[in-house]
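Inverse folding, one chain.
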């Protein structure tokens, strides 16, 4: 009866582990797409975004321009100053040119006689009022705004960033959205639904593994129960090394400031994101090509994958054949490799790395906020331990218990 129950629990362990692994792959794709659309390279660090912001602000300022009774005198005064500057500049240029030749001398005499600049200056207040009245004419105002907007658009067209939007557009189109904001909403909804679904499979997996542990270490456990637990530990090891263990993410939650009196805000801008499993880290180290990193990758693979796998395999064979292995290398792997295996150390190291990364990221993000001056900058550290860490931890605990049990039975 207990053996049948153990086999049933092993089946559910495999089933729930597969569903957990399957759900994690879906979540990883959704998370990667969310990070891609939210990355700072498409927002705060994107020339195209700043072009749109500047163009929009200037266009609004042009539309808001009005000559009222309150600002009429100020506009007239500024117009007069501008006309004075223009006339002074014209007079200075003419005098400078006329000094260069004898003919210029006579031109200057004629200019003094027939172009009385002092009289022109006396008429500046009248000219300024005429110009302001013309500017305040609705038809003239629309023409002026149109000309200004054309120049703004021309400058905007000349300001082109080098950002490649191919991946960005592909992700947006994948979710059947026209804008990134709509795609992000779809992604967030799917991610939340997947998390709710996956939570059920994780709970089921935990119950199944606890059931195997209970049967294997309470009462007179049979060989079938210990074999079932060993196979369950193998499933946990496979999931632990293939699923992400840590997500490292730093995000600018809000970046707000005033530009020409207009509020500008960037929100949820991802600065950095990285999510890797043990196998993926090993792959990156081995593909790097640098000798020290290749050695580190090989050591991690040997002590965190090969050695635990060999240990569980020998444990399984010992339970299947009902006797402990006799070869020295087999007994070394089963009973003495624990001090060499990095399985337990890996759990602690990953947890400490999580704490360390979190501390570093929090420190750097805090410095960004402190150095923001008059800007309003709010940052978030979204780094979290992932499911792979907990499954690897569960495997390590099961491995320790199985090793201790096998050692005791061999005495």
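Residues assigned per position:
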């Amino acid at each position: 009866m207990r053996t049948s129950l153990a086999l049933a629990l092993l089946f559910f362990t495999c089933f729930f582990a597969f569903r957990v692994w399957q759900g994690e792959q879906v979540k990883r794709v959704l998370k990667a797409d969310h990070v891609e659309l939210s990355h700072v390279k498409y927002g705060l660090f994107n020339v195209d975004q700043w072009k749109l912001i500047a163009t929009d602000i200037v266009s609004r300022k042009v539309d808001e321009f009005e000559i009222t009774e309150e600002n009429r005198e100020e506009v007239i005064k500024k117009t007069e100053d501008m006309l004075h500057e223009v006339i002074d500049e014209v007079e200075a240029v003419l005098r400078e040119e006329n000094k260069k030749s004898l003919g210029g001398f006579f031109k200057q005499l004629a200019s003094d006689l027939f172009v009385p600049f002092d009289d022109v200056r006396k008429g500046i207040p009248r000219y300024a009022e005429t110009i302001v009245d013309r500017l305040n004419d609705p038809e003239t105002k629309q023409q002026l705004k149109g000309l200004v907007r054309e120049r703004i658009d021309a400058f905007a067209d000349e300001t082109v960033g080098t950002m490649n939007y191919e991946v960005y557009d592909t992700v947006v189109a994948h979710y059947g959205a026209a804008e990134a904001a709509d795609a992000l909403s779809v992604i967030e909804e799917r991610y939340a639904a997947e998390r709710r679904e996956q939570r059920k499979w994780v709970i089921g997996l935990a119950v199944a593994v606890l059931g195997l542990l209970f049967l294997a270490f309470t009462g007179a456990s049979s060989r079938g129960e210990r074999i079932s637990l060993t196979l369950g530990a193998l499933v946990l090891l496979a999931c632990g090394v293939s699923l992400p263990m840590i997500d490292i993410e730093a995000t600018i939650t809000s970046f707000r400031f005033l530009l020409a009196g207009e509020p500008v805000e960037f929100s949820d801008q991802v600065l950095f994101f990285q999510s890797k499993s043990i196998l993926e880290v090993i792959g990156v180290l081995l593909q790097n090509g640098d000798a020290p990193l290749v050695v580190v990758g090989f050591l991690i693979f040997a002590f965190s994958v090969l050695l635990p796998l060999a240990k569980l395999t020998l444990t399984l064979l010992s339970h299947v054949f009902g006797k402990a292995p006799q070869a020295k290398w087999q007994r070394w792997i089963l009973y003495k490799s624990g001090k060499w295996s990095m399985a337990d150390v890996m759990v602690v190291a990953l947890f400490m790395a999580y704490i360390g990364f979190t501390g570093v990221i929090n420190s750097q993000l805090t410095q960004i906020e402190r150095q923001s001056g008059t800007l309003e900058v709010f940052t978030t550290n979204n780094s979290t331990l992932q499911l792979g860490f907990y499954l690897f931890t569960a495997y390590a605990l099961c491995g320790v218990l199985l090793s201790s049990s096998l050692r005791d039975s061999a005495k």
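The chain has one domain: 2-46+163-410. The longest helix spans residues 180-217.
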